[in-house]
Amino acid sequence: MSTPVIWLLIAAALALGEIVTESFFLAPLVAAAVAMALGTLLGAEIVLVSLIAVVVAVVTLLVLRPLLRRERLDFAAGGAEHDFVIGQVGVVEEHVVNDEATGAIEIDGEIWTARSNRDAQTFAPGEAVEVVAVRGAVALVDAPEEAPRRSVRA
After folding, report:
1. Which partner for 26 in 18, 40, 57, 153 could form a disulfide, CB atoms 3.0-4.6 Å apart?
2. How far is residue 84's CA from residue 98's CA, in Å, rounded to a whole number?
3. Which of 25-39, 64-78, 117-131 is the least confident region?
4. By the 8 A CB rule, do 88 and 131 touch?
5. What does pLDDT average to over the chain?
6. Please, are residues 14 and 47 in contact by the beta-carbon 8 Å criterion?
7. Where on the phi/psi map is residue 45: left (φ > 0), alpha (ψ -120 to 50), or beta?
8. Greatest extent of the chain over all pairs of C-alpha atoms, in Å
9. Residues 5 and 17 sit within 8 Å (Cβ to Cβ)
10. pTM listed for this prediction
């Protein structure tokens, strides 16, 4: 088996790992392995190919890092991607007790970690609750009749 093929197999394995982990940790290594395959295919010396692979990995990292940082900040802020559940009514699957940090609700077939919007309020399995806010991936819930109404903007 030729050296370029070996490097392409390594790149494929790393790409598969990247797809599975979805972390972008392996993406610069995938780019470096592809650079190694191309360099060896063109017959360049191993020292030059290695140097080019390092440069490709660093450039890939420098390009991806700002994108990842922005994506993580959006997720940590509980951005608009979770706003669709605000106002929806769900069913409690696991006791919602803030003091014990427990609680799960089901909304449209999806299970969400849940906490009460009011510290002293608890909900038992089977009770209906309304999502009033989302913090990260945690739904803050209230009893449907007690949930504050969102104002509609014109």
Report:
1. 18
2. 23
3. 64-78
4. yes
5. 84
6. no
7. beta
8. 73
9. no
10. 0.47
CA dist., res. 35 & res. 55, Å (int): 10
Least confident of 21-30, 44-53, 56-65, 78-87: 78-87
Residues 117/72, Cβ–Cβ less than 8 Å? no
User: Three-state SS for 48?
Assistant: helix
If phi > 0 it is left, if psi is from -120 to 50 it is alpha, else beta; for residue 131 that is beta
Q: Residue 143 corresponds to which tokens in the numbers above?
A: 């009893």
Q: How far apart are CA 140 and CA 145, in angstroms?
A: 15
Residue 94 identity:
E
Gap between the Cα atoms of 96 and 104, Å rounded: 7
* Residue of 88, 95, 86, 87 lying closest to 114 (CA atoms): 95
